[in-house]
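ok trying this again, last paste got cut off
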Amino acid sequence: MKKIIQLLIALLIISTLVLAGCQSAPAPEEPIVEEAAPAAEEAEEEAAEADEPEELGSAVVRFSGWTYDLEKVTDNIENYKSWVATDAVPPVQAEIEWSDSGYGEFDTHVTTTNAAGSQFDVLYGSDHWLAKWAAAGWVLPLEDYWPGVTDYISDIDQYSVDAMTYEGKLYGLPYYTDAMYFFYNTKMLEDAGIAAPPATWAEVTEQSLVLMEKGITDTPLMLGLSASSWFDELFYALVYSEGGTVFDDDLNVAFDTSSGPAYDVIEYLASALNDDQVMPQSVLEMTAVDVQEAFKAGDAAFVVVSGYMVRELNLPDISSVAGYAEVALMPGATHETDGYSRMYLLGSGAVEDEAKLQASIHLIEFMGGQTTFEGVEAYHVAKRWAVDNGLGFSVQSLWDDPAVNEAFSLMADKDIMQAQKAIARSKEGIDAPYFSEWISYVRTEVQKAILREITTEDALSNIATYWDDLKSE
């Protein structure tokens, strides 16, 4: 009996241990569950951090441009610094080192700086310098470092896109773009009994002679023919107005030396100066700025000026022809004109480190692109230049801005200005690195032909030969 009782007690102990073991079995799994939760949270936090832009630190950006309204330039830079500290992605703190020189000396400024072994990070540029600077490696294709910049192309006039493109790549965003416009004095034409502005260059001469005969003006036609950079814009505008082509897509000379638009334009200028004398000899020393001043003073009936000069023509305080200055499509067979572009470019110094590169790209984006600043999405800088200074632009959507529309409506017929700009063409040949050297030679040769020191055929032959020589080097 005693043995039976001992056996039963042993079985009871064994059963208790088995049951206890079964009940405690989940215990080892509980710490695993508790440890897994923090690991998942950490993974989520790491993923969230990966989505946040990396802080790149700070950079000093060397920014250079020509001297123009430096007070506004400084203010735009301060606005950029505010924007880049809050809304730019990736964020980077930037200090701007600004330097400037006159527009006429700016190419030399950039050339000597790079020749001395220094570089800029961001700089102003012009269509007729881009190829030279790009070929030398002083500026870099922006789209290689910021692929998204090409999204702007659909909102920019084609002539400006062409001007900012070198070897198939977009190099910048517009700073200021414009066209050459034909302006006339409505009161002079009315006093002479002329019902409408001239539609051809022959009509310009005909109406000029009437104005002279009636004693309304002795200098009806003024065109800036000084051998300076404004000559380039005027010469291309006149050739394009007659449907001319200067170079083909392969940079071969496309103009005829003994006939055709380029020939006809030079012959017209020579005749207007020497035979009909509807232009004074002084135009050979006048730039577009001088022509603008002569028109404002009431000396001329017809002028070709840049768009940004239009703002002053109808301001009563500074223009004696305020209220009488009106724009017409360029006279000629096609009414086309020259469109030119000034731009923001990425300098070769920008690639020194990632922070400098991103700060430089941000600077170009803020100055030339569309950003959200102080809660407003806009082309802030381009709009400011247009409204405050009357500077032209190639961003098509800016025409939809009420402030821009109001500002340009006060200058002249904005619909005609917009229509003229729509048929503007960039200067053919500017994508050759030697263009700036060639065009300097063109100025003096064409001047000689206008003065009839050499024939028009000789002038065109000389500039064609010079181009071929530069191309073959």
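PB: full thing came through this time. The chain is about 50% helix and 15% strand.
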